[in-house]
Amino acid sequence: MSTHRDQLPQLGGDVFLTDGGIETTLIFLEGFQLPCFAAFDLMKTQYGRDALRNYYEPYIDIARAAGYGFILESPTWRANTDWGNKLGYTASDLARANKNAIELMTQLRDTCLFEHAPMVISGCVGPRGDGYDPGIEMSPDEAEEYHSTQVRVLAWAGVDMVTAATVTNSNEAIGITRAAHSASVPVAIGFTVETDGRLPTGESLTQAIEAVDVATGSTPVYFMINCAHPTHFASVLNSQDAALERIHGLRANASARSHRELNDSRELDAGVPEELGRQYSQMVSDHPQINVLGGCCGTDQRHIRCIAHAVAALRKKTT
After folding, report:
1. CATH class label, 15-318
2. What's the pLDDT tens digit per position in 154-165?
3. Residue 34: closest CA among 48, 47, 18, 50
């Protein structure tokens, strides 16, 4: 059951943490085999569900210790029709997996809820194709029809919001936004960028955000950048484009490697957690509207803890 759908608390400007790179953590640090990089596949067994619970709980503890709110981002990034088909899921199997993932998030919220900082349940929606490659682009109408299947299930299951992650093009972002609007659930759009700060399609962040806002009447509650290192996009954020003020969330990679390099690597590049914390602190200092902070590929509890500490030190210094 959603508790914040009508008034998302992170829109008030307080800092909210979320988790790190769930798939890379489970594969490289916990030793799980995730076919197609699909964390939701762990929902099939009690052992897998326990592993997911154990994954999220330390992040909640980090947020509690820092006095920040927390966004429980469901492990459903790959839980759409195309990826489900590759894993042998029927439509009903996939709907059940999405529903059960939100039930797990709800259980975590209810058992770990802390008094002074809210917890938000977000249903994670990933791209139809690969998060590094736009492949064959859909039209906005095609994207809306495609993503509506998953978004409706997430909304029915009781999410407070939907977050699209690693979106590679504005057309798909428009479709996801429209699907969420039709399901009466708030939506945040997370774009991924290459080392030049542009989407894989070549669109700039400004162009992509403006395209979505124009096509949807500024429906997304905010935009995010994810699955890229701060060195890939920090200079872009420092431009004077008003559209970039719509970016309120960061989920950066630990590594400064390109997407191709990360995709080809058989080893985890965890970067330097303390350095990532400092980079986040600088971006939050330069862009105070950014208040939703988490990680993507290669990040884990160490990185989120460093981010929390660095941002706390920044806020102490500026108050």
Report:
1. alpha beta
2. 999 999 999 999
3. 48
